[in-house]
Write a structure and sequence with these properties.
The protein has 279 residues and is an alpha+beta fold. The protein is 44% helix and 15% strand. It starts with 10 loop residues before the first helix and ends in an 8-residue tail after the last helix.
């Protein structure tokens, strides 16, 4: 936004501007890792849950079966199928999940939930042959399954494949939460290290981000002040085009700073446990 020759004739300011340009370009290039992750991540074989067969006979209500196995209080109850039969999926207030045969009413083994997770993972990923290396229930976000995915709890299933395919599925809603492989996890590691600075402790990281945003905002405001104070001619020439172009860029940068501050503040509140819980 600055005009005239004074700015360019000041060696210190010139070096500072060059360093700021390099830093901005590096930060922008690391931001490009995000669309690369989206572009090259594994694609689901299916986008909708497995189709449920039509009921061939009337099923008894669940009340008697639930009482018979000692379930007197529920947080959620769903009728699901495992590809061969209909089941009641009962989630208790403490988060425990129980399965009952919808026709006979008997309780099913504890590993029924894991079997359902594997069925969903193979359906969405299209993987029917590779063995499972690991299956675990996630109740919190981590480096590979970040907060941006939002959905919890989910099951993480690792397949024995050269690309290291991992599927995240929610048995609560029969949803696919995400697919990942070694390439995507590599992009994620670079993105966390270079763009979000996840390697820094949260207080230091948030303070540093706020300091940078404040510095950018102050620089833009100073440039705006100088540009608005300098006289502008009435004729359209390169100098005037440069002046108005700088003003337009300054407004875009201020919008970028504001959105970055909102994002950083939301991340800080979440990390400190101050964000309101989602229903």
């Amino acid at each position: 936004c600055c005009t005239g020759s004074t700015f360019y004739e000041t060696p210190n300011l010139d070096r500072l501007a060059r360093r700021a340009l390099v830093a901005a370009l590096c930060f922008a290039l690391t931001g490009s890792l995000h669309p690369l992750m989206t572009r090259f991540q594994p694609k689901p074989a299916q986008f909708a849950p497995p189709p449920a067969p039509a009921l061939s006979e009337a099923l008894p209500g669940p009340a008697a079966a639930l009482t018979a196995v000692g379930i007197t209080e529920l947080a959620a109850l769903r009728l699901v199928d495992d590809g061969a039969r209909w089941l009641w999926r009962a989630r208790l207030p403490d988060g425990t999940v129980r399965y009952l045969d919808a026709l006979g009413g008997q309780a099913l083994p504890e590993d029924t939930e894991r079997a359902q997770a594997e069925r969903l993972a193979r359906w969405y990923s299209g993987e029917t042959q590779a063995a499972l290396l690991q299956i675990e229930l996630l109740t919190a976000f981590d480096a590979d399954y970040a907060y941006v995915n939002r959905l919890l709890p989910v099951w993480r299933l690792r397949f024995d494949r050269p690309d290291g395919l991992v599927a995240y599925v929610s048995t609560e809603e029969d949803r696919l939460a995400g697919l990942s492989d070694r390439r995507k996890r590599g992009f994620q590691a670079l993105f966390r290290a270079l763009h979000t600075w996840a390697w820094l402790p949260a207080p230091a990281r948030n303070a540093w981000i706020n300091l940078l945003l404040a510095g950018v905002a102050l620089t833009v405001l100073v440039g705006l002040g100088l540009a608005l104070r300098s006289p502008g001619g009435r004729r359209w020439n390169l100098r005037r085009l440069h002046r108005w172009g700088g003003l337009s860029v300054a407004l875009a940068v201020l919008a970028w700073v504001l959105s970055g501050y909102v994002q950083a503040r939301g991340d800080a509140e979440r990390e400190q446990g101050q964000a309101p819980p989602r229903p």
